From TrEMBL:
<keyword id="KW-0413">Isomerase</keyword>
<dbReference type="InterPro" id="IPR013824">
    <property type="entry name" value="Topo_IA_cen_sub1"/>
</dbReference>
<dbReference type="GO" id="GO:0003677">
    <property type="term" value="F:DNA binding"/>
</dbReference>
<feature type="domain" description="Topo IA-type catalytic">
    <location>
        <begin position="1"/>
        <end position="47"/>
    </location>
</feature>
<dbReference type="InterPro" id="IPR000380">
    <property type="entry name" value="Topo_IA"/>
</dbReference>
<dbReference type="Pfam" id="PF01396">
    <property type="entry name" value="Zn_ribbon_Top1"/>
</dbReference>
<dbReference type="InterPro" id="IPR023405">
    <property type="entry name" value="Topo_IA_core_domain"/>
</dbReference>
<dbReference type="GO" id="GO:0003917">
    <property type="term" value="F:DNA topoisomerase type I (single strand cut, ATP-independent) activity"/>
</dbReference>
<dbReference type="InterPro" id="IPR013498">
    <property type="entry name" value="Topo_IA_Znf"/>
</dbReference>
<dbReference type="GO" id="GO:0006265">
    <property type="term" value="P:DNA topological change"/>
</dbReference>
<dbReference type="GO" id="GO:0005694">
    <property type="term" value="C:chromosome"/>
</dbReference>
<dbReference type="InterPro" id="IPR013497">
    <property type="entry name" value="Topo_IA_cen"/>
</dbReference>
<protein>
    <submittedName>
        <fullName>DNA topoisomerase I</fullName>
        <ecNumber>5.6.2.1</ecNumber>
    </submittedName>
</protein>
């Protein structure tokens, strides 16, 4: 039903495309007016149309490959008042819930076995930990990356403005400035290449 009424929203690429465009606006590469028109124009129409014809529906639980440690049934992602969380699909017989851990695609630098997951502190601040917690107690406020420190071989984290312009090694303090390593010429070349491929 959602796919039918919100084709743009359900499209998995949509959100990331929108984020890319917002980043381009923020960095001055794109004018915001046409982008916002592009986004809100069809969106507004779709919402109005859907509001008229769509019955009130419960948002479907999203399946996962996580297994409930209490009853062995699969866990599903539910949307609650405080955001997304994992709940047992055996509800109401099994009321097990767990916080939803978003994997960021980086192996845990401390144990090398678990994966780095994004978590939220009680005050709502984002931090990064190991998926094997409490066996592994790796924790970082800054987002770890797969790149290793060229100086000491330790793990590196995103640092600097908006946590994306500088890679920093927490162990030895070595920094890699990402903005400086990419020359303006090469960025222009990448943009031209993407435009040629129709992906920009
Ligand atoms: Zn269960
Ligand atoms: Zn770990
Ligand atoms: Zn280092």
């Amino acid at each position: 039903l959602l796919v039918e009424h919100f084709p743009d929203i359900v499209d998995v690429g949509f959100t990331s495309r929108m984020e890319e465009e917002l980043d381009e606006i923020a960095s001055g590469e794109r004018d915001w007016v046409p982008v916002l028109q592009e986004f809100y124009g069809p969106f507004h129409q779709t919402v109005e149309r859907a509001a008229q014809i769509m019955p009130r529906v419960r948002i479907a639980d999203e399946p996962t490959d996580e297994v409930c440690e209490k009853c062995g049934r699969p866990m599903v992602i539910k949307l609650g008042r405080y955001g997304r969380f994992l709940a047992c699909s055996g509800f109401p017989e099994c009321r097990n819930t767990r916080p939803l851990l978003e994997k960021i695609g980086v192996r845990c630098p401390a144990c090398g076995i678990g994966e780095v997951v994004e978590r939220r502190s009680r005050k709502g601040r984002t931090f990064y930990g190991c998926s094997r917690y409490p066996e592994c107690d790796f924790v970082s406020w800054e987002r770890p990356v797969a790149e290793r420190c060229p100086q000491c071989g330790g793990y590196m984290v995103m640092s600097g403005r908006r946590q994306q312009s500088v890679l920093r090694c927490p162990a030895c303090g070595h920094q890699v400035n990402l903005a400086e390593t990419a020359a303006p010429d090469s960025i222009a070349a990448i943009v031209a290449e993407e435009e040629a491929a129709g992906r920009a």
